[in-house]
Amino acid sequence: MKFTELGLDEDILKAVLDNGYDEPTPIQAETIPGVLEGKDIIGQAQTGTGKTAAFGLPILQNVDLDNPNIQAIIISPTRELAAQTQAEIFKLGKYKKAKVQVVYGGSDIRRQINALKSHPQIVVGTPGRLLDHIGRKTIRLDHVKTLVLDEADDMLDMGFLPDIEHIIEQTPSERQTLLFSATMPAPIKKIGVKFMTDPKQITVKSKELTADLVDQYYVRSKEFEKFDILTRVLDVQAPKLAVIFGRTKRRVDEVSKGLVTRGYNAAGIHGDLTQQRRMSILRQFREGQLDILVATDVAARGLDISGVTHVYNYDIPQDPESYVHRIGRTGRAGATGTSVTFVTNWEMDYLRDVEHLTKKRLLPMKPPTEEEAFAGRAAMAEQSIEELVQKTDVAKFEEQVDHLLEQHDAKTLVAALLNEVTKSDASEIKVKITPERPLPRKKGGNKGGKGGGGYRGGNHRGGNGRRSNGNSSNGGGRGGKWNNDRKGGGKSRFGRDDRNHNGGKRNDRNSGNKGGSNRQFVIKEK
């Protein structure tokens, strides 16, 4: 099926084609015609399936440009998802010229109020900030024709359900309602019963997120060994783009700073960073200026960046669903990926829960030796130098080259260059990672099985060898392709960021990002 078969207008189709899309994803093919017909939709699909275009394209087509009122409201669980949804709809509507505005906590509400005076027809926002504007009467929803609940299960987990119901009650009863959720727990189904009229049910499984596309390994290690083993695995596998998950904010800070200290091109994101800082780091990661992103589960919700080749679980998650979401960052668009999970003897039962949910055995990986790690670094350095040779104007440095060759033989000079590029000195710097409280022992659990030897050494392939300036968002690097030169595919879609909580209450109504603990299911971001 082609986009031209879905009933979209020419100005909408032109923008779609300009963005390089020709064939709709399954969720788009099933959703767009139904929305254009005015039906309520319940769509069950994972992140990365093209949901934003599925509801964004028909909403754009239905907008009346002569009507200055808000005609569509899109509720998102997090600030970054809201911002990226607005950006995507704006891009898809460049010929339609509809006005799209985003509102979320952590941003100056006065600027948002001024922007709302331009009379946007489409508003994207987080629940708390939308309620702020409704209370201030800077947003009125009495002319809304379409309401979208995006990632409804995440909003439920974050405690937004009462806010969502209050927002829905401000809209006309005859509106069209579109609900999208990766899972369908009972409270989400109740929303469908209470606020929707004969909704069309659409269920799409994302092949991009299935465990079959990801080679999954685990490494058994003691808590204090994790960081050194992680760096050796990174040296051997040489991921092109990698996401490392930590359980707490402190963990993210320490691991990301430790990686930079060791010469890796890494940065971390969590809820204590400003929105501007998070967006900057994610932009650098998308553009390939960063090789490694360290994140909490909450900060990485909905992160959808093409080309991620590896996912590392520095801490195994407490619930297996979070594991599936984590490894779903790689193995997309038909490309294969790799995940490595670090697990202590105490946590083996959590690993079994993961295997039970995914119906796939994780392969044991033997930690690489320092010799294997050095070989990996040397291979990356060799390729980096090869690339430099291709770019270097020898004549420009002819005098210096002749002088150096008079003083030293060529072998010594190349060895010195390799030593510098491999950052051998940095790899020996001691890094301290604070131990985290272990996950609670499962009742009746065992003490873990035996480790294996699934590590596949050798075939080290090089990287781009980006240099470090000591800054955690512009660190110096170890890029490159991993052993089998697998690459991620597809287009970049949307990421999501985290929301702070205080005792289960939302903070996104405030322009600050104050204390509290971020929560996903029963996992707290500390």
UniProtKB/TrEMBL annotation:
Residues 429-439, 483-511 have a biased composition (Basic and acidic residues). Its EC number is 3.6.4.13. It holds the Pfam family DEAD. This is DEAD-box ATP-dependent RNA helicase CshA. One of its GO terms (biological process) is response to cold. It comes from Pediococcus pentosaceus (strain ATCC 25745 / CCUG 21536 / LMG 10740 / 183-1w). Residues 429-526 are annotated as: Disordered. DEAD-box RNA helicase possibly involved in RNA degradation. Unwinds dsRNA in both 5'- and 3'-directions, has RNA-dependent ATPase activity. One of its GO terms (molecular function) is RNA strand annealing activity.
